[in-house]
Amino acid sequence: MNWLAHFALSSSNGRERLGNWLPDLFGPAELAGITDPGVRRGMELHRVIDRTTDRHPRMRRALTSLPPELRRGGGILLDVYWDHFLSREFPERMGRPLAPFVADVLDSLDAAVDLAPAGTRTALARMRSEDWLGSYGTRDGVELTLTRISRRLSPRVQGVLDPARSAEFLEAHCSELREDFEELWRDVSRAVSDRMLEPGFS
Predict the structure, then answer these.
(1) Where are the alpha helices (DSSP H) in 23-173?
(2) Is residue 91 left, alpha or beta, with left meaning phi > 0 and alpha meaning psi from -120 to 50?
(3) How far is it, in rounded angstroms, from Cα 155 to Cα 140?
(4) Where are the domains of the chain?
(5) pLDDT of 90 higher than 90
(6) Does the pLDDT value for residue 156 go beyond 90?
């Protein structure tokens, strides 16, 4: 799951949302000094989401369905595909339109961003100005998202996502990938709910 899904699976608490985002921006050493309970709770939810997604049979099936030239960056690619389906079906799955949800997420992150490492505010400003969370729902948006991600990768692996080819594959195999997402979303949502109900997670 990529960022839209991570925020959708968080509570509305801005600190939890922040924690659910930070592990994709910084390494463990940079996050080790964060002590705020809400941010730490969000970081734990991030781990639950990633672990459940990575181990899921539908994720493995989708990875093997990718053409060989896309498999090296397959994990990143599929996370963007999953957010594509969530974006397209957001009101039905989440009970509210996407645009107001995105605005609420950005405002809540802005209110909590001082708890995060230096550099987070810059990333948040770009996420707002370039509409990162609202751009997953079209083929062009998927291609643009993958282009942005490619720029953040090291030069050695920048070409592995091949944004145009990846968007083409999504369009050609939309039905099968949509079925993978349906089961994956159900099980990841359940894993998050179960973790939130565990004693001590508050």
Answers:
(1) 28-31, 37-55, 57-65, 68-71, 74-88, 90-94, 98-112, 120-129, 139-152, 163-172
(2) alpha
(3) 23
(4) 3-197
(5) yes
(6) no
